[in-house]
Design goal:
A: about 375 residues; TIM Barrel; eight-stranded parallel barrel; 15 helices; about 40% helix; about 15% strand; B: alpha/beta; three-stranded parallel sheet
């Protein structure tokens, strides 16, 4: 039985109602009993955020200490076969696209190494032709000699399709459900394989079966009511901790950023609410990794770090070739799966980042905050 | 002492000095194992091998195969044949896998390693590992980082009583009193990390643990007074027999 069955039988409406109507005294009780029901109360409007934050900080310190792991995203391709209304890479956006060759990927990666990164996240749009399974495997194999830790954030694959990628040296997989609201999901994803909600929802389990050791999940905040999304994410984490018990489970809390297509968020999540979400996750799941990207501002990121975050990116580019200009000669538009020649300075970004500090500046800030930036926290020899 | 979770390499080095530790363990996954002296993976540069017996560990390994592979790379990189064997397949509670640990210990001992295995407080496993040639056993007091102290006290007592190799109580020691209690029981050493690393003043906390360990060891050597439920009656109930 996969998480789909658990998800379908989740008392989502009741949990959401309880979350909305909880009292301060229920909040105080919920602090003592970490489970899904109390998680719903921890994210309630009645919560004492300062108290929640203080406990979250203590919990994070005990489990993870004064260290923050750094990673960098590397975009392989911005080709995509899906139409997703909120995403800059959506098929119907007339943007400059490119898919790097494995050699170009290696060149971009070498730049990231000079910046200090030893953990890399390879990101690509979903496209069976431009971003084939073999292409992904070849990119991982190319980086393996140089990189202690390689993770992927790409379109969902079958278990058997993941295996060669794991064997090539990938240890982590990130797959966001985007929204756990089926109705909104349907209205957001109007074409392409991503339309299949259940298939996407089962992806972490397939990744685990294939041998991935780190699995990241999350919802893209701004598509549906954030408290409902948070409860679903918590239920998903709870399921994965039990059923994929050998994997390190990570969660991310991305908020929608401006991108091509000019999509406007359907639902607002304030900074205060984001902080509450992170703190509630930390208290409910003390051992789960929480990653925070450059979607958020420097001020918010620095503030969130002591409260639960364990992994951050820095100096990120969200377009292929963004670090060193690789692939610039091959920029084009794509229509109906065909290239239309075009020119430009660089490929189009997936979304605009909000923290423009360099990796060195972020590391220096961590140092002044009393945290050690950890660049290498894995070794390729640990990949079975 | 362990070397994880510290705010900086410098602070870690200062805490190690204050702790008086002789054995220092370090996660190989955080070090550069290629021989390239990577300045972004430089934890080993803070550990002076002349001051401490370096004890590389296999934290992150989920199987015997992964642990052995990491151990061999670690030996190349650090020159140390001593190894803290840690295999925890569950990244949530980090509890050691007894089956994989046993397998890996046998392989690594044959391969010339001095193996110090991290284990649950299982007296039979401790005997099996000692019989296999492990240099110590390192049973946990409670899960790593939990600060819950000697939750496994009854099993630890059996392990210590039966030991033919030194017993190092590892993990879960959240307060100097926990460390003192382990030493009073007759443990040969304790291994501490989180409690020192995340303290507001790691150097002073390291010193506090040092003092506690010395006190606990002295008490063990002297012999503690037996614990009793009742107070001694000042007027013996059978005193009338002497009248």
């Amino acid at each position: 039985m996969s998480f789909v069955a658990t998800f379908n039988s989740l008392p989502a409406v009741e949990l959401r109602r309880h979350s909305q109507n909880a009292t301060l005294s229920e909040f105080e009780t919920a602090l003592q009993h970490p489970n899904l029901e109390s998680f719903a109360v921890l994210i309630s409007p009645a919560a004492d955020l300062e108290k929640l934050a203080a406990l979250a900080q203590k919990t994070t310190l005990r489990h993870f200490g004064k260290v923050i792991r750094l990673y960098a995203p590397l975009y392989l391709s911005n080709e995509c076969i899906n139409i997703c209304r909120y995403c800059g890479f959506s098929r119907d956006n007339p943007i400059l696209r490119v898919t790097l060759t494995p050699e170009q990927v290696a060149a971009e990666a070498r730049y990231l190494q000079t910046e200090g990164f030893r953990h890399i996240l390879l990101v690509a749009g979903e496209h069976p032709h431009f971003v084939s399974n073999n292409f992904l495997r070849d990119c991982v194999a190319k980086l393996r000699p140089e990189w202690p830790s390689i993770a992927l954030e790409v379109g969902p694959l079958e278990t058997e399709e993941y295996r060669p990628i794991v064997e090539a040296g990938a240890e982590g997989l990130v797959i966001y459900q985007e929204t756990y609201d089926r109705e909104v999901y349907t209205s957001m994803h109007t074409s392409g394989p991503k339309m299949n909600f259940d298939w996407r929802l089962e992806t972490p389990e397939r990744a685990y079966q294939a041998g991935f050791k780190r699995i990241g999940i999350g919802a893209l905040l701004g598509l549906s009511d954030w408290r409902s999304e948070a409860i679903a994410v918590a239920a998903h984490i709870q399921y994965l901790l039990k059923h994929c018990w050998k994997a390190q489970i990570n969660v991310s809390v991305p908020r929608i950023r401006p991108a091509a297509g000019e999509f406007q968020p359907l639902s607002q999540v304030t900074e205060r609410e984001l902080v509450q979400f992170v703190c509630a996750l930390r208290l409910t799941f003390p051992e789960v990794g929480i990653s925070l990207s450059t979607r958020e501002t420097a001020k918010l990121r620095d503030g969130l770090i002591p409260l639960g975050v364990t992994m951050i990116s820095a100096g990120s580019h969200t377009e292929p070739g963004g670090y060193t200009g690789q692939g610039r000669a091959d920029l084009h538009l794509t229509k109906g799966g065909r290239r239309i020649e075009s020119e430009g300075e660089h490929a189009t970004v997936q979304f605009e980042i909000a923290d423009n500090r360099s990796p060195a500046q972020v590391a220096a800030k961590l140092d002044t905050m009393g945290y050690e930036p950890v660049w290498k926290d894995w070794d390729i020899s640990l990949n079975g | 002492m362990g070397t994880g979770k510290f705010a900086s390499g410098e602070l870690m080095a200062a805490a190690l000095v204050a702790s008086g530790a002789e054995l220092v363990t370090v996660a190989l996954r955080r070090a550069d194992l290629t021989g390239g002296k990577d300045k972004f993976a430089n934890i080993l540069t803070f550990l002076d091998p002349k001051k401490y017996q370096l004890l590389p560990n296999t934290s992150g390994a989920r199987t015997a195969e992964e642990a052995c592979r990491l151990a061999r790379l670690g030996r190349e990189a650090t020159g140390s044949t001593w190894l803290k064997l840690e295999i925890h397949p569950d990244p949530r509670y980090l509890l050691p896998d007894p089956i994989e640990t046993m397998k890996a210990a046998e392989i690594l001992i044959k391969d010339g390693f001095t193996v110090l295995p991290y284990i649950n407080a299982d007296p039979v496993l401790a005997k099996r590992l000692a019989d296999a040639g492990c240099a110590t056993v390192m049973p946990l007091g409670s899960p790593i980082g939990s600060a819950r102290g000697l939750e496994t006290r009854a099993s630890l007592a059996i392990i210590i009583e039966q030991a033919t190799v030194p017993v190092v109580v590892d993990a879960g020691l959240g307060a100097p009193s926990h460390a003192a209690a382990a030493m009073e029981m007759g443990a040969d050493a304790v291994l501490v990390n989180t409690a020192v690393a995340v303290a507001s003043d790691p150097v002073r906390m390291a010193d506090a643990f040092k003092t506690a360990v010395i006190a606990g060891r002295s008490a063990y050597e002297i012999g503690l007074a037996p614990q009793r439920q009742e107070a001694d009656a000042t007027s013996p109930l059978t005193g009338f027999l002497n009248q």
